[in-house]
Amino acid sequence: MTDAMDDARDAVGAVGAVGAVDGADRADVLIAGSGPTGLTLACDLARRGIAVRIIEGRPGPHRESRGKGLQPDSLAFFEELGAADSLRGKGREGVVLRKYFDGEPVKDTSVEGGLLIGQWQVEETLRDRLAELGVRVEYGARLAGITQDAGGVRAQLEDGTVIRAGYLAGCDGGHSTTRGLLGIPFEGSGEEEPAMVLGDVEAPGLSRAFWHQWFTSDGGGILLCPMPGTDTFQLQAAPETDERGEALPPSLESFQRLFDRHARMPGIRLAEPTWLSSWRVNVRMATRIREGRVFLAGDAAHVHPIAGGLGMNTGIQDAAALGRTLAAVLSGAAGEDALDGYQAERLPVAAQVLADTARRYERVVAAVREPGRGTEAGLE
Questions:
Q1: How far is CA 119 from CA 91, 196, 222, in A?
Q2: Contact assessment for residue 100 and residue 215, using Cβ atoms and an 8 Å cutoff
Q3: Residue spans of alpha helices (H) in 154-251
Q4: What is the full DSSP assignment across 88-135?
Q5: Judging by beta carbons within 10 Å of its beta carbon (0-12, 13-18, 19+), is residue 380 exposed, middle or buried?
Q6: Contact in structure between 151 and 277 (CB atoms under 8 Å)
Q7: Cβ(269)–Cβ(204) below 8 Å
Q8: Cα–Cα distance between 27 and 166 in angstroms, integer?
Q9: Distance of alpha carbon 210 from alpha carbon 228, whole angstroms
Q10: How far apart are the first and last CA of the chain?
């Protein structure tokens, strides 16, 4: 089966033999979700000559840093897609972590081997590459129903539009509509209270040469990471709490109070927040990632702690595996039984990543109580 999938890389002209489109409302593969996972899959299929459509419920692209690092395996696959050079031009290879403790700088640590880049920039680059391949994201298109039979999938959108496709890939995030419509359990554990607040802010006067990481002896902390190609920093911090001990929602005012408490740099005023969010610890995995002609990938299939920066990258590798699988079947290089290979390959990887990131997160939480230690503990 693996040889057949590899052969499919060169089978661009043979796609019409199986699942060929026969009208404007059809596609060989319909992708729900235009994050890094969905866009990676769309680019991979389109470059092979496979008719693909990609829909997105949001009205347009976002500009949020979110997942902010590409690992070497992801960059290697983007080389194949023809997107790596553009990504390297927008990102920054290597970063220096400057650790502070109780307001004093105590240690700098250089981290190499990946690319620091905002998630919105990754998505922008992949959208541009996809447009070069003749495909554009269809925004404001929300999935509302799925039916399937031996001939294909019928996807109904909220506005009543019906799209017919040979296969459907749900790449629509941790709250996946696709997964919900299929009734696939998302098993694991999660916390109700947020463990972290995040945002994109400007910090005039703060050096952009370092990923600043302030920790204090009371166990608190705040991190500001300079996002390449922008004037913003991604902020991460334990949330403020009210008099009842409940977490306050993220806001610029709260961010400033947290910064003043932990960084102790009165000359720095945070400004221009363009993204405000909260993050909760969730360790969950779909019990299956294939239901007939429908597949799950990325956060729709698994969510886990952010330590180690594996979330976006695991989704990209899901997309690479699913693209190989679908291309093998659609080109005729493999039979439909090859579709089982995607779940067999990626479900064990997801389970391993969940366990691994949980351990990494525990290491980071413990490490930041020690002067000179920071998020690099999640890379060890």
A1: 10, 18, 21
A2: yes
A3: 177-182
A4: HHHSEEEEEEEEEETTEEEEEEEEEEEEE--HHHHHHHHHHHHHHTT-
A5: exposed
A6: no
A7: yes
A8: 7
A9: 11
A10: 35
C-alpha–C-alpha distance, residues 69 and 118, integer Å = 7
Q: Which two tokens stand for residue 15?
A: 């796609």
* Ranges of H-type helices in the chain: 2-7, 36-47, 72-81, 84-90, 119-132, 177-182, 252-262, 311-330, 340-367
Question: Alpha carbon 215 to chain centroid distance?
Answer: 27
Q: What is the pTM of this model?
A: 0.90
Q: Which of 47, 31, 119 is nearest to 79 (CA)?
A: 47
Is-contact 195 279, C-beta < 8 A?
yes
In this predicted model, what pLDDT tens digit does every residue of 228-264 receive, in sequence order? 999 999 999 999 999 888 999 999 999 999 999 999 9
From residue 271, give the alpha-carbon distance in Å to each of 115, 237, 324. 26, 16, 45
Question: What is d(CA 333, CA 310) in angstroms, rounded to the nearest whole number?
Answer: 32
- Under DSSP, the state recorded for 247 is B
Q: Tell me which residue has tokens 């994201």.
A: 137
**pLDDT tens, position by position, 116-161:** 999 999 999 999 999 999 999 999 999 999 999 999 999 999 999 9
C-alpha to C-alpha distance for 51 and 15, rounded to whole angstroms: 9
Asked if 228 and 165 count as a contact pair (C-beta separation under 8 A), the reply is: no
DSSP track, 311-366? HHHHHHHHHHHHHHHHHHHHTTSS-GGGGHHHHHHHHHHHHHHHHHHHHHHHHHHH
